[in-house]
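Known limitations

Structure tokens in this collection are predictions and should be treated as such. Users comparing against experimental data should check residue numbering before alignment. To illustrate the layout, the record for Tetratricopeptide repeat protein 1 is reproduced below. The input appears on top and the generated tokens appear beneath it.
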Amino acid sequence: MKQKALVQANDAKLEGNRLFVDKKYEEALAQYDVALQVAPELPSSSELRSICHTNRSVCFLKLGKYEETIKECTKALEINPSYIKAFMRRGEAHEKLTHFEEAISDMKKILELDLSNDFARKSMIRLEPLAAEKREKLKEEMIEKLKEMGNSVLGRFGMSVDNFKSVKDPNTGSYSLSFQR
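Generated tokens:
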């Protein structure tokens, strides 16, 4: 009985693969779903299930549904925590959503599993400056919000944040404030 279900699940997966090649992503998703529904939750079918989740993630990636891509990859990785393809696809989806830190994290996991992985190494080179730029932007936005908040409080006393000068210490990276009239 379980063997029959496994054969049926594998046939659905192969049909999904055929549809994917024909760029029929929605139909392929449905076939991978059938495979997941009939595949018994047994150790013998765990590889098939993790592959189906990852294949579903690629369909979602092609359809531009990046949140769904991430969810499917995460399901695949719950079954097989060392599935490099799932980390690759999830990293791609994170990058599309500008979740650069998360994408970097996935690439680092790939390199822990396979130090010679070219995809992960090249992705890291591309992602690091994007993540740094995003961090800098967030920092600037935060400083602007703090200035607005400071001005709303200081305005009651006839002052503004412009009365305070901040100087960054190049050695420590910390700031010192001084008051100016």
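For this record: The domain at 2-179 is CATH 1.25.40.10 (Serine Threonine Protein Phosphatase 5, Tetratricopeptide repeat). The chain has one domain: 2-179. Please report discrepancies through the issue tracker.
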